[in-house]
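Hi C.,

You asked whether I'd gotten around to modeling the 427-residue construct. I have! Everything is below, sequence then structure, no commentary in between.
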Amino acid sequence: MESRRSDILKPALEGGAPAMPAPCPPMYPGGNLIDAREERAVIDTLRQKRLFRYYGPTPGPSKVDELEQRFAQKMGARRALAVTSGTAALICAVQALGIGPGDEVIIPAYTWIATAAAVLAAGAIPVVAEVDASLTLDPDDLPNRLSDYTRAIIPVHMRGVPCRMAEIMAFARAHDLKVIEDTAQADGATYRGQRLGTLGDAGCYSLQFNKIITSGEGGMLVTDDEQLWQRALMYHDVIGGLRNEIPAQDVLWGINFRMPELLAAVALAQLDKLDPLLETMRARKAILRTALRSLAEQKGLYLQEIPDPEGEAAVAFILFATGPDQARRLSRAISAEHVEAYTLYDPNEVDYHVYTHWIPIVAQRAWNPANLPWAAAPRPVDYSPEACPHTLDLLSRAVHIDVNPLYTGAEIEAVAEAIEKALHYYA
């Protein structure tokens, strides 16, 4: 038995058999579950010939209307607004809150560039703050980023992990700041029993194909604030004020972020799959954490902190190596076991999830000759590696493994074995 166990733990890089017989399936949680329900929804919409929310050749209910009602109910929010992308949702939220030139918005240094771009689209300036070992916004760093120009905070629930919302909300309320939750990677997850996206003034979600549920593209905004919803509604539709009988004296100009009926039809079918997906990923991740926590600690490594383990979306298993070199070795070893693994930061590989790689933002390049909003920024803003060194250190040591809901029980055990082999041999 001992010799057999020794053989099992021999890494594939050293000639052992890979823990996973074949490469892992791609990590598209909702996308991989598209089936006859989405097909029927699309075909029914096409047959009705109603592809635009407000009218078509035949009368009938709108899929977008239905999605907004059901999404608000699912998240526990008073209002929901369906838009074309998660980025569009963020832009609508920033605009609805009246954030603009001369304002600053604190965002985490680890987030997709869209979080920063949404702030810039309103003419305001994103200010990056450190993340902690949860890889979400560090509340303890907020005082260091606060200025007389700060108007809002955008906490981002990265990789499905809830931010420390109690501390963030307390800070925001103490300083009269608005809070927009970027929930693009954590649809349906919770914090202390409340759905993410409903703790701040507005919550923004993505339905892009990589996300937990998907319509290919698309996004949602939720809020309990009626005025904020009306303002977001006007911004997302050039005549949204007229369509919704908002008093003329309150009507503002808008653009076009309206969600098409076909996207809403797919999203409605996916929404029914959200809670089962989360339940499956949480169960799979619990197996990994139980199997590997003790060994990781014995080797001087530690697992990602989860502010609310019961509420996280559990899309990823992340552990921190002692240094970048060890993290790269572990990633290579685990990947050789047919389990994809990678580090979250390499200074030489551009990744728009890391603030130092937001090339046009770091260079402060604008779309206009006047270089606005940078030229009108109320004070210098730092996007150099020295701005958030703790974030870069954490990301460089982080080893990321997807928690795929398609894994069978045997396959998630194989993932655990792959990581165990790497830790025994290379940590």
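If it helps when you're writing up: Residues 2-30+274-347+390-426 form a domain with the Aspartate Aminotransferase, domain 1 fold (CATH 3.90.1150.10).

Thanks,
B.
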